[in-house]
Write a structure and sequence with these properties.
3-stranded parallel β-sheet, 349 residues, 6-stranded parallel β-sheet, binds S-adenosyl-L-homocysteine, alpha/beta, 12% strand
Length: 349
């Protein structure tokens, strides 16, 4: 029944809020099949059958923020805090490079220890040892000047999920010292500076509705990011949302496919959180239009501690050292992991 609307989205790459809500609320099994097939056709047009890999280095779980959903929020007393040294980060890169990674993603809490100078020094270190690799940062909200300093030091990409485009919803997920306006300001600054920029959301976060999801798609259309991260919300113990329901596989796959049709050439990961809630999550994400996976390259000794949510995968197929196994599993989807930087098509080096 939704086929005409799916065709319209493919053709126009945008719908009205009401039309997006119709797709979010009323796709039946058959519609979903058609939606995913359409999403795959669109991703193939731009990126063929390639799946890009990113080595994720979770280099600190100290955080000055107190996001209500997050397992490493400031007031989560049960989190065992750690930070990696520059040398430890560089040895993650060394291991990753040998495995075939050509993108390193440095992700962490907003840790005041990592000043602008320290981050710049780390970017510098990675770029001088691995000039053929992309560096992606995911370290939260900073000033224009600080982002610019990272970019000038050679960082290529930046991930900062907007979490929700609806300002009221944003305020219910964050304490009052964080604002939706600043989050969005950061994203526009990052784009302006020239980063390949990623925004994104958790599906099924508390207070989310089909209307806020439709607003997310419209926000993405307006921002036009090069990357979008979408994974299910998974409750984290010792947080205010510990007893909430988590996001579902089906809603996440639906949002991945709608994102693919809205931003046809976007780089779209099948996230760790999706792999965590379903054992075929990553594969199904790829089959719904995703084209990136981000295995964990953090030192094994700290992986357990970077616990954004409960039961987060960090071993098995999620671990960079099992890349060969992951590659074989993903081959069954008909898509293939490649060793390249995997830049956005408008930013090919
Ligand atoms: N401090 C950085 C990195 C945050 S962690 C930043 O602000 O961008 C990366 C992402 O993990 C967050 O943007 C959020 O969307 C997601 N995340 C946090 N807690 C989560 C949870 N309980 N379930 C699922 N995803 C979560």
């Amino acid at each position: 029944m939704m086929k005409p609307l799916i065709d319209k989205l493919r053709r126009d790459t945008v719908l009205t809020k009401e039309e997006y809500m119709l797709l979010i609320n009323y796709c039946d099994e058959e519609d979903l099949k058609y939606l995913f097939k359409t999403a795959r056709e669109v991703r193939e047009k731009y990126y063929g059958h390639d799946i890009y890999i990113r080595g994720l280095i979770e280099f600190t779980n100290y955080c000055k923020n107190d996001c209500l959903y997050c397992g490493i929020r400031r007031s989560c007393k049960s989190a065992q805090r750690y930070r990696l040294t520059k040398d430890e980060i560089l040895s993650c890169c060394k291991e990753g490079y040998a495995l075939g990674f050509r993108t390193f993603v440095l992700q962490g809490g907003e840790d005041p220890y990592f000043t602008q100078d320290r981050i710049v020094d780390i970017i510098d270190g990675i770029k001088s040892l691995y000039p053929d690799c992309a560096v992606t940062l995911s370290v939260g909200e900073k000033s224009y000047d600080e982002y610019k300093a990272y970019f000038d030091a050679g960082a290529d990409r930046y991930l900062l999920r907007h979490e929700t485009a609806n300002n009221e919803h944003y305020r219910r997920l964050h304490p009052s010292d964080m604002s939706p306006e600043n989050r969005k300001r950061c994203l526009y600054d990052l784009k302006k500076i020239g980063f390949q920029t990623g925004c994104g959301i958790m599906t099924g976060s508390p207070y989310q509705t089909s209307e806020t999801l439709a607003e997310d798609l419209l926000f993405m259309k307006e921002l036009a990011p090069q990357m979008v991260g979408i994974g299910p919300f998974v409750p984290a113990k010792d947080t205010p949302f510990a007893d909430r329901k988590g996001g579902t596989l089906s809603l996440t796959l639906l949002m991945l496919a709608l994102t693919r049709l809205t931003l046809p050439d976007v780089l779209l990961p099948a996230t760790t959180a999706l792999g965590t809630i379903h054992k075929m999550g990553r594969e199904l994400g790829i089959l719904a239009g995703a084209n990136v996976v981000m295995p964990n390259l953090s030192p094994v000794s700290v992986r357990e501690k970077y616990r954004l949510y409960d039961n987060k995968l960090c071993t098995g197929d999620e671990a960079a050292e099992s890349l060969a196994k992951l590659k074989n599993k993903l081959l069954l989807t008909g898509y293939e992991v490649v060793t390249s930087r995997g830049d956005h098509i408008a930013h090919k080096k």
